[in-house]
Amino acid sequence: MKRFCTFANCNQMNFLSMDNITDKTQGLNFLEEIIENDLQNNKYKEIITRFPPEPNGYLHIGHAKSICLNFGLAKKYGGKTNLRFDDTNPVKEDVEYVDSIKEDIKWLGFQWAEENYASDYFEQLYQWACVLIKKGLAYVDDQSLEEIRLNRGTVQTPGKDSPYRNRSVDENLDLFQAMRAGEFADGEKILRAKIDMAHSNMHMRDPLLYRIVHSEHHRTGSKWCIYPMYDYAHGQSDSIENITHSICTLEFDVHRPLYDWFIEQLDIFPSHQYEFARLNLSYTVMSKRKLLQLVKEGFVSGWDDPRMPTISGFRRRGYTPEAIRNFCDNIGVAKRDNLIDYSRLEFALREDLNKRAKRVMAVLNPIKLIIDNYEGEEALEAINNPEDETAGTRQITFSNTLYIERDDFMENPPSKYFRLAIGKEVRLRYAYFVTCTSVEKDEAGNVTAIHCTYDPLSRGGNSPDGRKVKGTIHWVNAKDCIDAEVRLFDRLFTEEVPDKAEEGKTFLDYINKDSLQILRNCKLEKSLSDALHLEKYQFERLGYFLVDYDSKPESIVFNRTCTLKDSWIKQQ
Ligand code: ATP
Ligand code: MG
Q1: What percent of the chain has pLDDT over 70?
Q2: Which ligand ends up closest to the CA of 50?
Q3: Is the shortest distance between the CB of 249 and ligand 1 below 6 Å?
Q4: Is the CB of 56 under 6 A from ligand 1?
Q5: Could you list the active site residues?
Q6: Mean per-residue pLDDT for 191-218?
Q7: Which of the ligands is closest to the CA of residue 69?
Q8: Are domains 18-281 and 288-356+484-571 of this chain identical in fold?
Q9: What are phi and psi of 94, to 5 degrees?
Q10: Mean pLDDT calculated for residue range 124-129
Q11: What is the SS3 string spanning 120-158?
Q12: CA-proximal residue: ligand 1, atom 18 (nearest)
């Protein structure tokens, strides 16, 4: 993306070409500034970033922001990005998640240089823990987690030293080895760094390094029963991979002194941590724990439910990688937490789909339109994509029996109604002008069919004599259209910030009960019978759609990705 500086800011630059004033000093985000500085000062030869997911759930749009940032920076500065699974917590992690994460990153359009696992480094991390013990910088503590918590003190008061804090190096080494050998039960012992129980930063008050967890790990099996804590594993894993810029979200800024402390004490490659504001999106929740709860408790059909803010959900919903990447770029990189409006994501989506989606006609809520003076059948030409000449045209069939939207007819229309009503003329898209003459009704008085006559001279939808019609409506040919189910989605939550902590409520109290609407009697133009998964369509006047994974040749299912305009603005 090109960014331009204002003239006031670029007088110190030379004006060789417009390109010279983009991306140089102005318009850089703070991470780009840091990297450009580091490169100028020869601090690193190559920029290496990493994306470090914990494989305990599917990736969501917040992760997409982190992915775009990490891969984007490395790409911009000729470096590389590793994928590192932060798999230090055997209880919650699973291969299913590892696979989905890889699939999602690839789908977003990024390729990692190395695929690594923190668990690959367990031996090295263990050895480094022994180094810290030998330096008198780590000890085995017998206190329970509860005691440790109580003795940590508060922000105002210092913590209390553990009674085990002054064990000898030899005793600590023996005990740590015994922990590894499985001689203790979960929680019986813990390895802690020996820093300062009165430190103003609570994370520096003898943080935990290793805990005992007798549990199978999805990669290392039962080889280990001690597992490193996040803080201990993360920075050292970065260092092993020579990560230059370790980018994480803001809540980790208080962990940074500890990150630096380990690297300094172990005297290993100096990776540096930088924090940016996590992406918060309105009308959704983004923590994997909460998303898992939505899945487990059946509020959605799975991680890839099209209403989920997961990458797989967006994919199934019909989002494109380009739309998601553009969105992530457009919102920029903030240093302070903020809430991004969902409509910005939809804006990026519409912009992209408008360019690529093939236009077709479909009727979601059909009523028959009978043209009494038309005989036979013919093919008419329809434009596939007015935004893309190379998309060409297609033939659509026309007969005397069509379906139109029920909404496009009114028996007693208000004055500004430009669609069909008795005595009124409209244009049928790509076809003819028709004038409504009468309706058929059932016993209850509901309109069951609409009758009209057509003007043969208006073929192609062109006025034969300069007379104007204000409304153009879409239709399908009842004689060869196909039946389909169409799923319409709305936001999953009714509140902008569903996980705000309101008295006695949880995010589940704000679920939008009408977020899924299934229409079972939809009529699609014939060309859609061989629509492919992930192919994008615009149903004219209705929105963007694609075939759902549930679709079968005998029972076609489409999802609506989004409407053509932001219908939410009106509702608010
Ligand atoms: P969650 O709270 O959803 O479980 P997490 O931070 O625990 O998220 P990880 O798998 O640890 O998830 O995250 C992998 C990377 O993605 C981390 O670097 C993390 O900072 C980043 N990340 C996670 N959520 C967001 C977000 N909302 N916005 C930006 N980056 C994020
Ligand atoms: Mg995490």
Answers
A1: 94
A2: 1
A3: yes
A4: no
A5: 54, 278, 288
A6: 97
A7: 1
A8: no
A9: -155, 150
A10: 98
A11: HHHHHHHHHHHHHHHCCCEEEECCCHHHHHHCCCCCCCC
A12: 248
First CA to last CA distance, the chain: 32
Highest average pLDDT, of 6-20, 26-40, 159-173, comes from: 159-173
Q: What distances in angstroms separate CA 158 from CA 151, 199, 206, one per listed residue?
A: 9, 7, 12
Q: So where are the chain's domains?
A: 18-281, 288-356+484-571, 359-480
CA–CA distances in Å: residue 247 to residues 44, 49, 274, 335, 492: 16, 8, 5, 12, 30
Taking CA atoms only, the protein residue closest to ligand 1 atom 27 is 62
Domain 359-480 architecture: Beta Barrel (2.40)
The reply to whether CATH 3.40.50.620 applies to domain 18-281 is yes
**For residue 97, how far is its CA from the centre of ligand 2 (angstroms)?**
13
pLDDT above 50 (res 12): no
pTM of the model: 0.91
Is the beta carbon of 279 within 6 A of some atom in ligand 1?
yes
Structure tokens at 307: 């209403």
Per CATH, the homologous superfamily of domain 288-356+484-571 is Ribosomal Protein L25; Chain P (2.40.240.10)
416-460, pLDDT tens digit by residue?
999 999 999 999 999 999 999 999 999 999 999 999 999 999 999
What is the predicted pLDDT for the residue at 567?
64
Shortest-distance atom of ligand 1 to CA 66: 30
Give me the mean pLDDT over the 335-350 stretch. Answer: 95
Exposure on the CB side of residue 257, measured as CA atoms within 13 A: 12
Specify the residue with its C-alpha closest to ligand 1, atom 29: 278
State whether the beta carbon of 32 lies less than 6 angstroms from ligand 1: no
* More confident of the two residues 94 and 288: 288
Find the 130 Cα to ligand 2 centroid distance in Å: 26
Mean pLDDT of the chain: 93
Stretch 267-281: mean pLDDT, rounded? 97
Quick one: pLDDT band at residue 500, thresholds 50, 70, 90?
Answer: confident
Tokens 């810290």 belong to which residue? 132
Is the pLDDT at 24 greater than 90? The verdict is: no
Closest residue by Cα to residue 175 from 142, 205, 224, 206: 142
Output the pLDDT for position 125. Answer: 98
Strand pairing report for 272-276 and 543-547: unpaired
Q: Whose CA is nearest to atom 4 of ligand 1?
A: 288
